[in-house]
Amino acid sequence: MSASRQWRYRMFLGLMIVYMATACIVACALLWTTVTQYKVENISDTTENQFLVPICGIKKDLYSDPHMNCDLLDHLSYEKFVANGWTKIVYSAKLNNQPIAIKTVNLKGKDITDCAKTKSILLCHNRAAEKLVKEINLLKELKHETIIQMKHYCAKTSEDNLCMKYAVIATELGDPLTNLKLLQMTWDQRRKIIQDLANLVNYAQHSPVGVLGLADLRRPQFVLINGNMKLTDLDDIIVGEPRCVTNADCSSTVFYLT
Ligand SMILES: Nc1ncnc2c1ncn2[C@@H]1O[C@H](COP(=O)(O)OP(=O)(O)O)[C@@H](O)[C@H]1O
Ligand SMILES: [Mg+2]
């Protein structure tokens, strides 16, 4: 082989090696960015990865409950967003042509987003779902004209924190009680709101599960249904008389709605 042909051959070989090395680096960089993009922060790869975690099963004792109906709720199509709070989100839907409210965990709510800054998404989600379960358990017991009526629910919570808890409540649909609605009310309508509130406080004192502490009694926890005001957010209710831990707890004047 002549010297010039040998030189051209070496140049070609060198360029091929550089070309292949560059292609390898680019391919590796692309692969790395794809992998890191899908990596879920703060969640370990084994048990807590939300994409691998199964949804919890249904507790056996709920099978015989007539209000428990996961099949029905899983196949309902939510029509539109109604309102949300820190923990829960509410949509409207139709069931047998009747409007209903569907309440479930608010994945983008303050409760979950604040919690997820320091804890795993799964744990935060499960805590929010547990609040819905508490609300379900209270709605089963508390039947009153000033408390929203539950029609169906679905609760899947049987396992420990290795599975994702799931809870949905279907209730009668109301209108969120806004400041504007209150301002537009006639005096008669306002008097009715005060009567409903007094009625609720009275019921809280004599409820079938005992005295209820209405710990978060605020306007956004109520809805209006045919001019009646009904409590819809029950997850902060304290059941039973508050207990004194220290002497000071019982001697100071504490305003408590019981
Ligand atoms: N049955 C319902 N019909 C219409 N709106 C509702 C109903 N239940 C709740 N809402 C609205 O959804 C909002 C969030 O529900 P809520 O139970 O208060 O969640 P959170 O615990 O996050 O505060 C409420 O402020 C209320 O305006
Ligand atoms: Mg609320």
TrEMBL record:
This is Protein kinase domain-containing protein. Keywords: Membrane, Transmembrane, Transmembrane helix. It comes from Daphnia pulex. The keyword Phosphoprotein does not apply. The lineage of its organism: Eukaryota, Metazoa, Ecdysozoa, Arthropoda, Crustacea. GO terms for molecular function: ATP binding; non-membrane spanning protein tyrosine kinase activity. It comes from the Eukaryota. Residues 76-258 form the Protein kinase domain. The keyword Cytoplasm does not apply. The chain crosses the membrane at residues 12-32.
